[in-house]
What we know:
The protein is of the alpha+beta class. The protein has helices spanning 23-87, 91-111; strands spanning 114-116, 128-134, 144-149, 152-154, 157-160, 162-167. The chain folds into two domains: 22-112, Hemagglutinin Ectodomain, Chain B; 115-168, Head domain of nucleotide exchange factor GrpE (Nucleotide Exchange Factor Grpe, Chain A, domain 2), CATH 2.30.22.10. The protein has a three-stranded antiparallel beta sheet with strand order 1-4-5. Strands 2-6-3 form a three-stranded mixed beta sheet, with no helix packed on it. A hairpin with a 2-residue loop joins β4 (152-154) and β5 (157-160). It is elongated and about 105 Å long. The chain starts with 22 loop residues before the first helix and ends with a strand. The relative contact order is 0.08.
Amino acid sequence: MADPKVTAGTDPSEEGPVPLVSPDVAELEQERDDYLDALQRLKAEFDNFRKRTVRDHEAMSALANEALLRELLPILDDLERALEAAEQHEEAKLEDGVRLVHRALADTARKHGLEEIETSGAFDPHVHEALLAQPAEDAEPGSVVQVLQKGYRLGDRVLRPARVVVAE
């Protein structure tokens, strides 16, 4: 039978009290605390990295937009001159001005990687959008017979599919 005077944490067969936490447990607790501290620091560093990456991405996008818009400003100026010529009813100058603006805008877009999607030949559902199918005697079935709206791609990505009429 156990002695009722023995308190928790003591061994009745020994003279002094036995510590509740052994040195091994204390070492393990310290190691745990060190790992927890390292993990919290790593988490904070990762959060900072993520935020910095988002800021850098936004800054690069803004810089790219600024460069593109800077190149578009002369085209806007040309459009304003064409509109001023239209107010004076100079149709020949207006047509020349609009052609000039169209050419300048197309050249700027091409310079930045914009390409027109090829529409001659067979229908390709990856780059074409068929709006109509109609019988065509002089075309093979499944070929593009008319382009209703040009399509464009930027690199490998389709920005807008070409809207076409397909031969039945």
